[in-house]
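Appendix B. One record, verbatim.
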Amino acid sequence: MADNRRNIVSSLVPFVVATLGAVCMALAFPKTNAGVLAPLGAAGLFWAWFGVSPLRAFWIGWLAGTVYFTMSFWWFGETAGALIAPFGVFLTLGPAIGDAFFGFGVIGALVSLAAVALRGRARVARALVPLGSAAAFAFGEWLRGEGLGEIAVPFANVAYTQVNSPLAPVAAFAGCYGITFLVCALGAYAAYALRMRAVRGSGIDAAAGLFAIVACVALAWTFWPARTLAVPAYRVAAIQGNIPQRLKFTRAAFTDALRRYESLTAKAATQRPQLIVWPETVMPVALNQSPELQARFAALARAVHAELVVGTFFISHDGDYNALYFFRPDGGLDAVYRKRQLVPFAEHLPFPALFARIPWAQNVSRFSTGTSDGIVPVDALRFGPVVCWESAFTDLVSGDARDGATALIVATDDAWFGSTAGPYQHAQIAQMRALETGRWIVRAASTGISGIIAPNGRYTEASALNEEAVVSGTIGTPVDTAYDAIGGNGVAAFFALIYALVLGWGRWRRV
């Protein structure tokens, strides 16, 4: 009987260790911001995965991942949950369970598979297990965040916890997935040292792995193009009107928003900006069907003598679009950008034949998908616009840089998420896009956080959450990064290749 109890307890230990690791990783994000916990949490996961069968590792990963993503995604339903009550809880649990399956469950099985394949092999082969494991995790992060297409959920990437850490320069070369790889490699080599402590030379292997990671970071810092930046001279402003989401779509709030944003824009004009950005859907009307309002914004652009970017809707015979309107300083309409990456189950219903009969599906908006990057030349710069959710898709944003954008605009409506961790996580994501692309970013958020981000990932100006604000400052010319050319898909393919090579070594290499 005692032996049975001990066996049960020992079989539960990997689940407990992995779950505690997942909790540590979740605490690395805002609002706790304990970024140093990310590699510690990864160590717990890999320790659990290294010592069990692939099937068991899958279940351990799925459980731990569900805990991790539930903690990280809890803000998803802050406002929208009430619209689909009593199903609002699924706005968090649905993505959490799905992402845990692909990002932790499947990856746990792959990590265990590599560990099993290399068990009993030569020392050099065994020492490759942490490397392949970290590559598998980084690939899984890409898969759930971008590889799944329209149902991908690109939040809670481990790399975002490191935007202000010494690992940040790596993003210019390998993007957010490269940083995730290094964080996981730190954790994996620590787990390897613990699991293999009785094996001669395992400590030296782990130390060598740590040294290689430090060397990579040092090289990235040495050749980081954003270490030196040209003096910024192009003046910009972001307007934050702070209209709560519960009021936004009322008639009284529309009138107040119009007055408030015009007043704040006039205030911003005293700094003589060349570009002024309003947040996403700040005017919840189809502007192309309201000539009076369009004329009003054209007159405002003339009055402040700046390019004015307004978030609103565009409705035509071919669909309804979440859009940004660009008004020139002379009042002419420069361009209309239509959002390309829509939020699943919020802005559009993916796979409607499958999901249309769900009771709350009729509450899902039916926006159409834009097809153009919408890059707009403004004076000496070319601005690539992205709207809200789009800023979390690394390949979409780096694609704008490849297409010629020399600066980026992020217009977002984070009022949906109140004072939760959501606005802070989203603002952190924008820092990563600046690091990856080497572009200055002007970020306008309806209730915050608005700001100006330099190519080194740092906010040079920023507002607080839930306040009226005018964020003014200067931006400059971009720096070119290797990641612009490679992109997220290329980095993900590279990590898949690393894992395949490590697994292949284990299967074919003889002692």
